[in-house]
């Protein structure tokens, strides 16, 4: 894993030295993502194009410094890449065969890294190359013709950027200087380091912050004029001519290269179970490849247990022992209380399965003070206020995992694919006018002053986007009501809730240079499960109901205690000392006259928070302590990023 960033300056007069310095500064903000090696490449013709890379070495440790270039038929291709391609070995052979057909000779790969595989995939298949990749990725390929053309025109240049199907790896961009300069970066902080990029937030950003976050709308961010390249999209830009050559601003062409399809399932129940098992086993085995120590996050819940069991089996076949980690909080055993969303604690189950599988297991316990202190770092890691201690705890745990391991595997994404959330089987949640994981949309927006919030207008705007998105859900005309609801819940969950969780996992882990892989987010598995009848995914007679397809696929590899355990999400602290600490931290911020919270919040509504019931208002984990901590993060964010409100 790594970070990438780049700049294309179309201005007729640009400062090459200054642009290179700015590009280095942009990359320096993301050294945490790639502490092992740094590289830069630039090309100065009529247009300045620069690429920067920070490397976290996972495969072929000695080689693989980026940017990497290849020359074929008078064209030079240069790549910066962040990700892992799990079918790299097969693609390498396919590339060699295809290029031999075209040129009569084989290309000479200089490394064993998948970076070159991605580069040559673009050389061979052009803009269709992302369709060939099975993995997590964000990359840019700069293409430049070497030497003059026969017509005397300037050599052609272009840049191509692409992001994986579910957005596991991040990629942001913006246009500045009156649309004359294009910037891209793995994290928003890289863009914000450019002296001409301002940290602004308009009304639409404010609505997203107080209604939706940590989820954000597709293609947008909380920052005005900073956008994301959406999951399963690629973009291309012609870099041949400087601004003004033809009196037009440069154009960016966007393309969606993958979309899940609704298909008729023609098999039987056992066929659905068998294919699920085969795809999962294949995904896990592919993602175990690493030249650095690898571990598995094991909570003792069904999802992480599936990954751990399959990984442990693969390790045992080669005579090695798998390492696993579970996460706990200081004081949780004494203060834990069961809820609809978190019916059980994890520690007993994680230890039980670790012993059952014979893995080398470590329990990491997060001190309450650290979870509070890391709230600040979590804002910096994510570039906006996310999920309070749900973020800061993972940030802490990953910093401890990094001591011995650089790569981890996680059970993330199973609930969105197999139907593990309540809105999959509780119609009243799915049939609302708003995102089903937001139990009370008014909790946060209601804290704002009325003239700032414009709450009704914001709700109407976001609700309209919600319904427009739902209307695009792929389905068949003869889907049963239960199947149509299943598709709708999966469509929503994988495109919104899952992308949020993947973003959280990436930022919190990569802040400590830990690469987390998510086998459930294999597009082949998603395509299969999306079309399996709901009755196979939710079998009421099983006693548990949700995720029956996954449970049945793993019935011979997991003990019943784990296999039929009721869903329990990522753990959070229940220690009352945490709420007391974050309440004090928020109070300290409010004592500062320059705090933005004085401008934003209605003081009467703020006081109601401390007297309110401790109910869950977002997802499965965000309740009163998290709301207090989140407000602290909002204040930190505005101050540290110098947010300019443009309402």
What does this 3D model show about the protein?
This protein has 647 residues and is of the alpha/beta class. It has 27 helices and 19 strands. It is globular, with a radius of gyration of 25 Å. The mean pLDDT is 92.
Q: What characteristics describe this protein?
A:
six-stranded antiparallel β-sheet; 42% helix; 27 helices; single chain; 17% strand; alpha/beta; 647 residues
Overall morphology: globular
Largest sheet report: 6 strands, antiparallel
Strand order, main sheet: write it out: 2-3-1-9-8-11
Low-confidence stretches: none
- Give the quaternary arrangement of the chains: single chain
Structural class assignment: alpha/beta
The total count of helices amounts to 27
- The whole-angstrom Rg is 25 Å
State the share of residues found in helices, binned by percent.
40-55%
User: Averaging pLDDT over every residue, what do you get?
Assistant: 92
- How widely separated are the two ends? 37 Å
User: Approximately what portion of the residues adopt beta-strand conformation?
Assistant: 15-25%
Quick one: how many beta strands?
19
């Amino acid at each position: 894993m790594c970070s990438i960033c780049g700049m294309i300056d179309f201005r007729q007069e640009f400062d090459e030295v200054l642009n290179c310095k700015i590009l280095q500064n942009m990359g320096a903000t993301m050294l945490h993502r790639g502490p092992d090696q740094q590289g830069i490449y630039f090309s100065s013709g009529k247009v300045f194009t620069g690429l920067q890379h920070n490397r976290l070495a996972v495969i072929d440790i000695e080689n693989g410094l980026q940017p990497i270039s290849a020359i074929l038929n008078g064209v030079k291709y240069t790549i910066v890449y962040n990700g892992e391609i799990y079918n790299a070995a097969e693609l390498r052979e396919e590339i060699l065969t295809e290029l031999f057909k075209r040129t009569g000779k084989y290309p000479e790969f200089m490394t064993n890294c998948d970076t070159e595989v991605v580069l040559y995939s673009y050389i061979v298949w052009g803009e269709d190359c992302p369709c060939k990749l099975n993995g997590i990725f964000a990359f840019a390929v700069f293409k430049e013709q070497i030497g003059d053309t026969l017509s005397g025109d300037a050599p052609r240049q272009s840049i191509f950027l692409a992001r994986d199907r579910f957005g596991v790896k991040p990629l942001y961009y913006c246009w500045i200087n009156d649309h004359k300069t294009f910037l891209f970066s793995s994290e928003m902080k890289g863009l914000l380091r450019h002296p001409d990029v301002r940290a602004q937030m308009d009304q639409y950003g404010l609505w997203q912050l107080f209604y939706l976050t940590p989820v954000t709308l597709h293609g947008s961010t909380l920052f005005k004029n900073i956008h994301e390249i959406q999951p399963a999209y690629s973009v291309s830009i012609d870099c041949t001519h400087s601004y003004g050559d033809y009196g037009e601003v440069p154009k960016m062409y966007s393309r969606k290269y993958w979309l899940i399809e609704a298909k008729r399932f023609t098999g039987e129940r056992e066929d659905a179970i068998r294919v699920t098992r085969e795809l999962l086993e294949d995904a896990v085995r592919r993602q175990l490849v690493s030249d650095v120590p690898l571990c598995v996050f094991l909570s003792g819940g069904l999802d992480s247990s599936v990954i751990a069991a399959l990984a442990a089996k693969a390790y045992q076949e080669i005579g090695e022992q798998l390492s696993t980690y579970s996460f706990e909080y200081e004081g949780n055993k004494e203060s834990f209380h069961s809820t609809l969303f978190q019916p059980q604690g994890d520690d007993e189950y994680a230890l039980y399965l670790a012993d059952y599988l014979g893995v080398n297991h470590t329990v990491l316990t997060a001190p309450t003070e650290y979870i509070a202190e890391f709230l600040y770092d979590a804002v910096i890691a994510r570039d906006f206020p996310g999920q309070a201690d749900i973020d800061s705890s993972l940030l802490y745990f990953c910093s401890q995992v990094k001591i011995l391991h650089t790569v981890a595997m996680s059970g993330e994404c199973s609930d969105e694919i197999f139907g593990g959330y309540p809105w999959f089987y509780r119609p009243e949640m799915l049939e609302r006018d708003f995102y089903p994981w937001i139990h009370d949309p008014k909790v946060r927006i209601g804290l704002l002053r009325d003239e700032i919030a414009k709450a009704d207008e914001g709700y109407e705007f976001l609700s309209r986007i919600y319904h427009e998105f739902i209307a695009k859900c792929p389905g068949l005309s003869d889907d049963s009501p239960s199947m149509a609801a299943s598709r709708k819940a999966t469509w929503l969950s994988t495109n919104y809730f899952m992308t949020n969780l993947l973003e959280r996992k990436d930022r919190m882990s990569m802040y400590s240079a830990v690469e987390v892989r998510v086998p459930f987010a294999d597009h082949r598995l998603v395509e299969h499960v999306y079309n399996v009848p709901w009755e196979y995914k939710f079998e009421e007679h099983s006693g548990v109901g949700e995720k029956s397809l996954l449970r049945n696929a793993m019935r011979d590899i997991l003990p019943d205690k784990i296999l039929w355990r009721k869903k329990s999400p990522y753990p959070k602290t229940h220690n009352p000392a945490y709420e007391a600490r974050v309440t004090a931290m928020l109070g300290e911020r409010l004592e500062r006259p320059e705090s933005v919270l004085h401008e934003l919040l209605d003081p009467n509504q703020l006081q109601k928070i401390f007297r309110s019931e401790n109910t869950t208002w977002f997802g499965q984990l965000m309740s009163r302590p998290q709301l207090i901590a989140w407000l602290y993060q909002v204040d930190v964010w505005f101050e540290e990023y110098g947010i300019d409100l443009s309402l």
